[in-house]
Amino acid sequence: MAPSRADDLAGDVFADVLAEHVRRIQQRIPPALADEPDAVHRLRTAVRRLRTTLAVYRPVFERRASDDLRDRLAELGHVLGPARDLEVRRDDVESTGRASRTPLAARERLVVELTEAHAAAHRDLLEWCAGERMRALNAELVRWVAAPPWAEAAEKPARKVARKRLRKAVRRSLSAADDVDLGVLADRTEELARDTRPTADDLLDAAHRLRKAGRRLTHAARDVTRKPTKVLGSHARELDIAGKAVQSSLGDHRDALLLARRARVVADAVETEGGDRRPYDRLAHAAERRAYAALDDAARAVAALRDVAGRTGQ
Question: Can you give the residue ranges of the CHAD domain (predicted)?
Answer without folding.
Answer: 7-307
